[in-house]
Design goal:
Keywords: Membrane, Transmembrane, Transmembrane helix. The protein is mainly alpha-helical. The protein contains 10 helices and no strands. It is elongated.
Length: about 250
């Protein structure tokens, strides 16, 4: 008997555990004080890093492959934590907090977006993981039809075009992240005695509004890429949309 297909992981759970929860921990528990939840910046970073690190180890043991969300989460939290410690220990850097934090926020999506280009010719391209995969498209039938019609170069061109569009969406995210950092941290007074508290609160707001201001445009771009992919495959293969897509 054939084995049942492995259950697909929920991307939302991945994002919550590897990105959202660690960021909230870092922004809310980094205060220094006597309360049990006031861990300080160093210990808060350790706790925040434990989530994506632990999830990444579990994913590796179960699936024998890296979890890209865990890698991104580890990098994001480590950068945020190190920048927070640097800002708190270096008074001369405080006037530039919006630029420093904004560059960090912009670099993260650029790195992730670049991985779509770097892994394009690998055995497991990220574009196929996120968009063009067997849970959405009937890839085997599509590639068989493309081969029969001898349109492989056009097929590769379509995938490359959509990969570039996906990379472009991360570039948009980088610009919006930088803008959010200047909006929320641009007027932070370096001489404010509650500077650390205000900083933590603003980082939390950047995280919250980032999901709204950045998430919505990225969803629109993702749907446009999916629309472009489906229409391009219809023209290349002659198959209709119901045949191209896996029944839900």
């Amino acid at each position: 008997m054939s084995q049942a297909p492995a259950k697909e992981e929920n991307p939302l759970v991945n994002i919550i555990i590897n990105v959202l929860l660690p960021t909230i921990i870092l922004s809310k528990l980094s205060k220094e004080g006597d309360a049990v939840y006031q861990l300080g910046p160093t210990l808060a970073m350790v706790v925040a890093l434990a989530l994506p690190f632990g999830y990444g180890i579990w994913h590796w043991v179960k699936h024998k492959k890296l979890n890209i969300f865990s890698c991104v989460g580890l990098g994001a939290i480590l950068l945020t934590g190190l920048i927070t410690i640097f800002l708190w220990k270096s008074p001369e850097a405080k006037p530039h907090v919006a630029l420093i934090f904004g560059l960090k926020e912009a670099i993260q999506p650029l790195i992730l977006g670049s991985l779509f280009l770097i892994t394009r010719r690998s055995s497991n391209p990220l574009f196929r993981t996120f968009i063009y995969n067997d849970s959405i498209f009937d890839v085997k039938r599509i590639e068989q039809s493309v081969a029969e019609k001898q349109r492989i170069s056009e097929y590769d061109g379509l995938i490359w075009k959509c990969t570039l569009l996906f990379f472009g969406s991360f570039c948009i995210s980088a610009v919006l992240n930088l803008g959010l950092s200047f909006y929320f941290l641009g007027d932070l007074e370096a001489t404010n005695p509650d500077w650390r508290t205000v900083y933590n609160e603003q980082v939390g707001r950047i995280t919250f509004w980032g999901f709204l201001v950045i998430g919505a445009p990225l969803m629109i771009v993702a749907f446009y890429i999916l629309y472009t992919m489906v229409n391009g495959l219809e023209k290349l293969t002659g198959l209709d949309r119901e045949t191209l897509l896996v029944p839900r």
